[in-house]
Fold:
Amino acid sequence: MSALPRTLVLVGPTAVGKTAVALALAARWPDVEVVSADSRQIYRRLDIGTAKATRAERDVVPHHGIDILEPGERYSAGRFSRDAAEWIEAVRARGARPIVVGGTGLYVRALVDGLFREPPMAPERRQALQQLTEQLPTVELMRWAARLDAEFSAGGRQRAQRAIEVALLTGRPLSHWHEAARTAQGVVPFYVRLTAPRAILHQRINRRAEQMVQRGVIEETAAVLAEGHDPAAPGLDGVGIREAVDYLHGRLPRDAVAGAIATASRQYAKRQETWFRNQLGNEVLVLDAVPAPDVLAARIADAWEALV
Structure:
C-alpha cells in the first residue's frame, strides 16, 4: 500500500445524488470538506444551472472549487489538478478530511494521475515511427503496445500508437511516466462510483430539470447575460444553462426548456457512466444509488474504515 494518504473520490453521472451522499458523509464525519471536481460549478452566480450545493449546505460543509471564476473565464483540467492538490493539502493541514466529489472525468483523472508532461522525443524519429505504426493493423498495434508496456490494457489505435511511441523513443513505457506524474501529485484515490438503473436515473434527471426551471435557472442566466457576457462563453455553454440561453434568444419556447435540459442531461449522463466505468480501473466501490443518502454514506464509511 502506498505511504501517501488515501483520498475518497466520489463520482457518478449527473443527478445520481453525489452531493446528497457527500453531505450525509459529512454528517457522519464532522471534519469533512468537499473538493468539487465539476467543470461548471467553478463559475460564480450560476448556482441553479450547475446544481451546486445550496448556500446553507456550504455554510455547514466547506466546499472548495466552487465560485472561483467569473463566467467567461477559461479553466483547464491541468489548472484544476494543481488547485485541487493545494486545497486537499490545506484541508489535511487543518486536521480535516478532504472528499473529492464530482462528475467531470478529466478533472478527476488530472488530479489522480498528475500532470503528465511528455518526455523529449526526437521529432524525426517520432515522425518515422508514426508512419510505420499507421500501416499496422489494429490487432498488431495492440500486441506491440502490450509487449512494450506490461500495463497497457486496452484502447483504440491512437492510444496504442502512443504507448509504442513513448516506449521506443524514451526507453521507458508510458505507464512509467504516468506513475511518475501520479507520485509527484500525491493523491491516492479511494474511488466510490454511484450508479443507478437507467429508469431511476432518468426520473431523477427529469425531476431536477423541472426544478431548475421552477427555481429560476432562466432568470439566473438572464442576469449573467445582462452583465455583458457572450452567450457562448465558458460557463454559459453547459447543460442546463445553454437551454436557458436558447430560450432567452428565442430559439426555444419556455415550456420546452425543462424537456431540453432533461434530454441533454440524459445524454451527458450516458457519457459520464461510460467514462467512469472504463477509466477508473478495478479498485472501485460501485454502489447502487437508489437507497437513501445516509444508507449509502454508512456503506462508504464502513468500506473506508476497513481500508484504512
About this structure: The chain has a mean pLDDT of 91. The chain has two domains: 6-114+187-307, 123-184.
